[in-house]
Amino acid sequence: MKKHWKDVALAPKQSIRDALEIINLHALQVALVVDENDQLKGVVTDGDIRRALLNNLTLDQTVDLVMNHNPITAQFDTPKQKLIRLMEQKSILAIPLIKDGRVAGLQTLKQALNQSYYDNPVLIMAGGFGTRLRPLTDNCPKPMLKVGNKPLLEMTILNFAKAGFVNFYISTHFMPEQIKDYFGDGSRLNVNITYIHEDSPLGTGGALGLLPNDIPDLPLIMMNGDVLTKVDVQRLLEFHNENQAQATMCVREYEYQIPYGVINGKGNEVVSMEEKPTQRFFVNAGIYVVSPEIIKQVSVNQVIDMPTLLDNKIQVGGKVLMFPLHEYWLDIGRLDDFNRAQADICALGMSE
């Protein structure tokens, strides 16, 4: 299927933010950078933007700073099967199609092939009390609060299911019967659901020690049950596997503006001044990929948080990577966040 390429096109001096919006809106992981004559100047991918964030570029900088200036292209009349073979050989997700020296189409691998399915387990942490969301959570587990017309937990499962994941484990503690009664064994959603129950809270990593011994010996994706996101879980898993990581943590860029002028000094001498500077950090997004060896390190009923578990691995030389999120992400921890999610949900197309 040749995509209407103009839907994902932008000019070289448009911002990285513009490219990001195009990639997220059309879910193609690619944007085409073209000039006023429709000549291809470069291609920007999901990975290019993530690398830009890691290299401290801002979303307001121009897209020509991060684009691939020499992308792989093909002629417009190239047969579909030949395009598929080329994309597989080059490990790329899309090929711009050229006719008479100008862009005339875009072939994507995702829509050219059938849906892939993954045996990798998915663990969703759904046992929290949600105390900051009271009174909404007085009689309802936080992941069962409806965002739009569906519980948050259902939206999370559907996002994974659309990407081809079918094996789910849900960690429960607070009002577990509501979750079990609603989802059952998962067959209504065409997935498999197994429940693991924490008799007492074990921290964000403790549920790993309760997983059954017969889970697939594959990297596991785990996610906090109070996160609403459109993260590309396929790309997340690919990133983890391609880099042979022992663990991967999703991170989100967070900006904080200091409300005062900052003075840098040497002794009692003023060296420089900066008025209300903005500091940028990567913060934990509550989504992880962990390899089987990490899971095996958590014993039954061990109380441990994920940051502590991963830091322990880092201290002994383990390979723990971060995966920057630029897709929609919201931690629904407070009433303001919950209200924002209600406002966002229709625009995001996640309420269907």
Please give a structural write-up.
With 352 residues, the protein is α/β, with parallel strands linked by helices. It folds into two domains: 2-112, CBS-domain (Roll); 122-348, Spore Coat Polysaccharide Biosynthesis Protein SpsA, Chain A (Alpha-Beta Complex). It is 28% helix and 30% strand. It has eleven helices and 20 strands. The protein has helices at 16-26, 46-54, 80-90, 109-112, 152-162, 176-183, 203-206, 233-242, 292-296, 306-315, 335-348; strands spanning 2-3, 9-10, 30-34, 40-45, 74-75, 94-99, 102-108, 122-125, 146-147, 150-151, 167-172, 192-197, 220-224, 227-229, 247-257, 261-266, 269-275, 278-290, 320-325, 329-331. A seven-stranded mixed β-sheet has the order 12-11-8-13-18-15-19, sandwiched between helices. Strands 1-7-6-5 form a four-stranded mixed β-sheet. A hairpin with a 2-residue loop joins strand 6 (94-99) and strand 7. It is globular, with a radius of gyration of 23 Å. The two termini are 24 Å apart.
